[in-house]
Structure prediction request, 114 residues.
Amino acid sequence: MEYMELNDPDRKIVDEAIEEGNTVHGQRKHLDYYNIFKRNDNVFEVILRPSSCDKTTQRVHRKECQIQNEKPQVSCIHCNGAMKPCLLLKQKEEIEKMRKECLQHHTGGIHPHF
Prediction:
């Protein structure tokens, strides 16, 4: 789905991911939105890829930039209302662990302290 086709709440999540991803993993090229996966109502995963644009302080979606199939490719998980640290796609085990923790937290039911 194209960035402009996203609804406002999903676009806000993507914008958070772009900010986080570029802050942590942005090198020479601007990391931009590639795809979003909805795991459930409270868990989203945003994939960022390098673009044709050079990295700048502007950390938002830039429609003038073409997505490149290069490294680094980044996974940013938005879990229960908060953006988790973005990880490189090659960090598969860590990403899977974060996904499971988010999904278990949501489906785990009542908080253990209550």
